[in-house]
Structure formats: structure tokens, C-alpha cells
Specification:
Elements (H helix, E strand, L loop, with lengths): L2 H5 L3 E4 L5 E6 L5 H10 L2 H8 L8 H8 L7 E7 L7 E9 L5 E7 L8 H15 L5 E6 L3 H10 E9 L2 E8 L12
Parallel strand pairs: 5-6
Antiparallel strand pairs: 1-2, 2-3, 3-4, 4-5, 6-8, 7-8
Helix pairs in contact: 2-4
Length: 186
Amino acid sequence: MDTLSLARFDRMLTLPSGERVRLRPIRPDDEPRLSELYDRSSRDTRYQRFFTVMRRLPPDWAHFLANVDYDRRLALVAEDVTAPTTRLIGVARYEPGGDDIAEIALVVEDAWQGKGVGTRLLTELFRAAAENGITRFRAFTLADNRRMLGLLARHADVIERRVERGVVEMLLAPKAYPPRTVSTGE
């Protein structure tokens, strides 16, 4: 994806609550911000994202997650624009998953859950993936993560689904979205 295409994903959004956030592609300098997001997340949120709870996000993980090629690997972040310094409140990403399928992952800081951040991140991630020719996704979600299962069901058609050891594996195709209008204020 070229710089101009990436710029389309850098914009301000107004959530249904009236709060404003910035959505943008991840950058290498977000490494420490990913660690801070992990540190602020509850034990449940950490477990639901990584299927394990670590005391801290390992630095090599933060490095890997913050450095993407914006084509085969892409992540979009949401920022709290009212924070005094850049503060990530959510991340949606896709990674190569084999057979022209990308694996997706999403996390939203606990205080921002239920406000539409995850919905906006996921729909914009699907749009960006479509620009890169990716139309099928695999998601692994804990069976008790009802919020994520509901979000995926609302925004993608489930082609295959299986449950093993408390983990739901789904093959997904995003639902069609109307083209996004280009504006700075939403």
C-alpha cells in the first residue's frame, strides 16, 4: 500500500458516545505504546488477545507488532486524542495466515470497550485488506469472548467455524460496506 493509500486511514472519528479518537496505521515508534496498552489492559483483556497472561509484553513482541509492511502485514491503531501524549487505545491487525487467508486480531483498552472503537478498527481493517487483495480471514477467539464473537458475526460472514479446547476458529469473509466518504470530521 502506498503512502497516499495509508494516509486515507489516518483520520479523526467521532464515536457514538461523542468522544473523538484518531485512527491511523501503526508506526515503528508505537513499540512503547503497545507495551503501555498491554500494561493498562485487564487480565481478561490480555488473555482474550494473546491466550496467555504475561507480566509484560515482551520487547521483541512489541517490536514485531509495531513493524509491518502495510501490505501482507497491517495494523491500524486508535488513539485517545484527549490524552496529553500519544496513547493507543486499540489495535486491529492482519497477518499472513496461508492460502490467501489473513489472520486477524483485535484489542481495545478496557475503558474504551463498548464505545464503537473495535467496530471502527475492524471495518477499516477489512477495507484496507480489500485494497491489498485480501478477502478471507481466519480468527481465533476464546469461546467465552462473546463481545468479539458478536463483533465478527456482525461484520463478516462465517464460512467455517469449529471449536476446540475452548477456542473458536472461524473462516470469515467481510460483509460488503458502502464506500467510505472522505472527510476529516466523520
